[in-house]
Design brief:
Immunoglobulin-like, rod-shaped, 8-stranded mixed sheet, 3 domains, SH3 type barrels, alpha+beta
Amino acid sequence: MQRRSFILVVSIISITVLTACNMPGGQDPNADLAMTITAQALLLESGSGNATPQQGQLPEITATPEFTPTPAITGTPTVPEVTVSQNTNCRTGPGIAYDNIGSLLIGQVGIVVGKNTSTGYWIINNPGKTGTCWLFPQYATVTGNTANLQEYSIPPTPTPSPTPTFTATATLASPAPVNNVTMDMVCPNNLHSGTLKWEDKSNNEDGFNIYINGSLVASIPANSTSYVVASAPGNPFLPGIASIFEVEAFNAAGKAAKKSVTKGCP
């Protein structure tokens, strides 16, 4: 279409020039018109006008501008959260006087449900357990809006469990020896007998052993102070021969020293 317009313009210019040459006096009244038409033709030729592209020709493609993506905005958590730079104990109150019931470890995120402004402690959901606990604040970093957190009062200090008092069991000692051992001899015929007596000087004996001439003849109960010695038939206390009578206190810890008396019939 543009080429046809150009040919038509050139033809008009040629006719105009020829007509001008035949006019008297060489006057060229259409010179201005020719120049205007020529300029329009040149504009059409150069494509600076609003010409329609010829068939088969592609219009110039304008590049689509690139857009820089808007960086994602990290939102502030709606529920305050806390992390720690060191593993931190979580107790029933602010301080070591309160029981340790949990902990928040490095890498864990705790949910903050309250605070105590005077101590700086945070009250959090006990990690991995039920209920809440008081988190030591030194290593804690809290994110989120804490302005509306509940203010917790400091709980009473727990009463320490009484330390059991152990009563020392006294070490059992051996009993004290008896004292003032005597023998009241009766010497009718050759069947001698008598009563052996003593003073009990201990309060922890289990009983007393009675010896005659070195042989154990009896064991009698605690707190006893006498023992009847009888001469059996065939084994009398012979006249003129003295016998040794001994008393020995004893208990589970041991035996006291024997105390003795020597006595015989004339």
